[in-house]
Amino acid sequence: MQKSQSAKARAVGINHVAIEVGDIGEALEFYGRFLDFQVEEQSDEMAIVYFGDQFINFIRNTDRKADRMRHFGIAVDDKPLARRTLEAMGVKLLDSRFLDFLDPWGNRIEITTYTNIQFTKADHVLRGMGLAHLTKSDEAIAELRAKGMAP
């Protein structure tokens, strides 16, 4: 028996995430204290910050409720440095097995290490970001290999 195939677009990745913050300038200052990024666009109502070929869109909303489980992850080159910086900033880390915290507007953020996850930037993007030295861990490569996606 032949399977019928419906035409569907294939998801390629996540281009950006939009998060709500109470004040755009304060959000850029808060995130800029522990992350290196480029501000592409900014107004009183929104800002777009790039991490290489992906971005976060900060949208102003003063009526925001805190997230409980909804979150997104940011991959960094140096997770221990991010932890130390967040702690020095007085950010309360959440009780979880991950490096999670709520930003001042209640957005739940998870910080993860680029080398230990499957998500992979193209070599030319890493070079352009000054991160060509980053490599994947054996575990991350094994996970990619299991899916037929190893380098």
Regarding quaternary structure, what we see is single chain
Helical content band: 10-25%
Unreliable residue runs: none
Give the overall shape, derived from the CA principal axes. globular
Beta-sheet strand percentage? 25-35%
Count the beta strands: 7
How does this structure look, described?
With 151 residues, the chain is of the alpha/beta class. 23% of the residues lie in helices and 26% in strands. The strands form two sheets. A four-stranded mixed sheet has the order 1-4-3-2, with helices on one face. Strands 5-7-6 form a three-stranded mixed sheet. The radius of gyration is 18 Å and the shape is globular. The model has no long low-confidence stretch (mean pLDDT 93).
Short description:
The protein has helices at residues 24-32, 79-88, 123-128, 138-146; strands at 16-21, 38-42, 46-51, 54-60, 71-76, 99-102, 108-113.
Topology:
Blueprint: E1 16-21, H1 24-32, E2 38-42, E3 46-51, E4 54-60, E5 71-76, H2 79-88, E6 99-102, E7 108-113, H3 123-128, H4 138-146
Parallel strand pairs: 1-4, 5-7
Antiparallel strand pairs: 2-3, 3-4, 6-7
Which descriptors apply to this entry?
alpha/beta; 4-stranded mixed sheet; 3-stranded mixed sheet; 26% strand
